[in-house]
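hiii, so i know i said id send this last week but things got crazy w the move. better late than never?? heres the sequnce for the chain we talked about at the cafe, plus the structure i predicted for it. fair warning i was half asleep when i ran it
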Amino acid sequence: MVWLGHLTSLCALCLLLVNRTFALPTEDAPPERAIPTAITAQPLPQALAAFSASTHLQFVYVSQLALGKVSQAVPAGLPATTSLSHLLEGTGVDFLFLNDRTIKLFEQPRASRAPAPTPVRESSGSGPAAAESLDEVVVSAMKRDEILGSVPMSITVLSPEDMDASGIQGISGIAAVTTGIEYDFSSQYGPGILSNIAIRGISADKGDATTGIYIDDTPIQTPHTVFGNAYPVTFDLAQVEVLRGPQGVLFGRGAEGGAIRFITNEPSTTTVSQLYRSEVSTTDHGGTNVEIGAAAGGPLVAGVVGARVSVWYRNDGGYVNRIDPLTEAVVDADANRSVSRAFRLSVAFEPNDALRIMPSFSHQSINLHDTPAFYAEPPSTRAGIPDNGKLLRQPAVEGLNVGSLTVVDRIGAASLTAITSYVDRNATATVDTTNVAGIVYFDGFGNPLGHAFPTSYADAVPTLLTLHQIQLSQEVRLASMDSAAPIKWLGGFFYSRLRQDSAQDTYLIAAPEEPGILNDQYNTIAEASAFGQTRWSLNSYWNLGAGMRVGWLDSHGSTHAAGFANAGAAPFSQISEHERLPPTPRFDLSYQPDSRNLFYAAIAKGFRAGGSGGQAIRCGSTTTPSNFAPDSVWSFEVGAKNQLFDRRLHLDASLFDIHWNGIQERVQDSCGNSFTTNAGAARSTGFDLGADALMTDRFQMAAAVGYLDVRYTRTLRTADGQIIVERGTVVGGVPSVPSPWSGTVSARYEWPLAGITTAYLRAEEIVHSHNPGPFSELETKSLSYDPRLIADPATYLLNLQLGLTRPGVNVRIFVNNVTNAQPMLQSYADAPGSALVYAYTLRPRTVGLMGNWTF
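okay and structure toks below
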């Protein structure tokens, strides 16, 4: 708890500096750019374009919103907000500033329409005022700000309020509440670092990533390693955007199945904002959880320079005990505790109305004391308390530094954006491989329980892992600015260079001088690509979109290998290859009869890059391939986005059919040599449906349900007839297979108390179904046959909150996992026939108090 004291002092110091640096104004106000020339009364789309050209402010709205409407005349010299109020008077259109440079236009609810509306800034939604309609969400999924309801793509957006309400602390929580995402990690391999993420069943258990992970415009996904991807913390985010389906045009080779974007809060040069968050909670049969965070931003030089800084700390108490496997005595209670820290600083410099320069830097670290996995079999003698009987503690430490420089300049009717990013990731971990070594290499340790069970601490076999990734990326793009123009376009160029160094050292703890496996890998991957996207308004209702990305990839690598368990590997090998990346087009057609309804159809291609399969090995008259090609998907999607009953009901539905070809599969020749080649084929079908309803002014409900069926369409065998994958079986490999059905339902009821204080009660249920298969791993002729492997059981997670709100304040008592559900997840054994099975589970019932303060 020493660190807690240090961080509390740090937060107190930050608050003092914040209050001194960002003095709160008497009233928040958007930028007051005066319009230099008069704007005549004219059709509203042309008036908005003239206003934007005069002020360099950007509008975000659905084009149908302005059709058939006429603006009021506005004289020159008035402040921007006053001018826009006059311009929109009598049109039924209102506005608010999303930030210093972007204005969202929206239709006023019929019940509240009045002449000369008063503009307000968007709030956190924590005030007690009765709601008249649901908010319209703005996204940047197409690399320009757009209203979510006008984007022809399946997207889920999680606001900070959404994440707080669901108790989301990271990627696992995001995946749990978002249909179409699978996230899990290997319970058999160390401290849970070998993770897997997939959107719509397009997973990556080898090779390049299939899901793009972005912090704003900075890609942080990397090729598959035992450490999985890095994921940013969720504190001080503007929102999280989950883009389903291939994103090859705008996000490239790492987004074959989709992309997840973590959008940070930007600094403002005009408006002060502050955020403080704290939590104290306790977990059944576990430790105490503590979180504190502070963020603040505002002008340093009004209208010219602004900054935003945030600091965050979280201590998660453990709930898995590590026991002595020989005596079953507890040697480390609540061993899977962890500490996470984050810091972010960004600065905005606006020398004129058209130019914005924003450097930013963020650092985060995660220190996991021990693994969350435990022994599912043999079961614990302490009922209800999971035990981990590994000889060695399995810690993991990861640090992620991200620096970026974003320059946005308006050039005539277009916007030029340049992003330079630098990502530096370091990770280390210890994996206790004693049990698997006993089965595979030592024919057991003499324990009557089985080959996997040791008899002495001298039997311990640690594996030490390190990873260092440095990635430099540069993107430059030019995009049209007029939201109502008949043709909207975007084009750009992307370059990245990744250096990835990793090391593995496996040895007997009793004889560290005799390595079992030594493996050092050094890889460099460089990509350059060009992309473009255009959207044509065929008429007032129909829109046609088309895009394409092309590029090339260079990769170089070397491997040093040694050790008695690594005898088949070459002591030194090198690879070098240059490949042209497959073109990735996207086409969509949308019909939007009005500003509240959208119907669309889209066809898109995505891919992941090829790679090296290792040293070529001869087997009879054939030679194993030394590399493998990219695999790709074609996605066909139809969907609808509808706002009904005066925007009190939002519906979002999509139906998809994805064909995955040339899947990178691990196969084996008749000599027993394993290699990766393009041999698999699969199909993923399903749907996603979301609904958000304002039932009354005080009662709101939301529900989402998704169905996913992803199966191989071709049987793949070895030369001697053994099955690698069988047609009709589920893609992924048991237990890491997606749930066919997933869904979330929530309800919130508010009631007024004294003054401006409101109380609320919120309930949420998160459900994932069991996948019944069939699976290749349960086919007796399969190379991966293991009858003990099973898919995860169905899971049900109930969360409750009781809170009080008033403007800027939200305090609540919460109970997560009310029923204390503890299913056995990702059950896995070291080897077929092993009597030792690992698993992990949901965090047990957690009760706590949490508060948010925004100013």
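btw Helices lie at 2-21, 44-55, 80-88, 160-165, 171-177, 248-251, 434-440. thought thatd interest u
miss u guys!!
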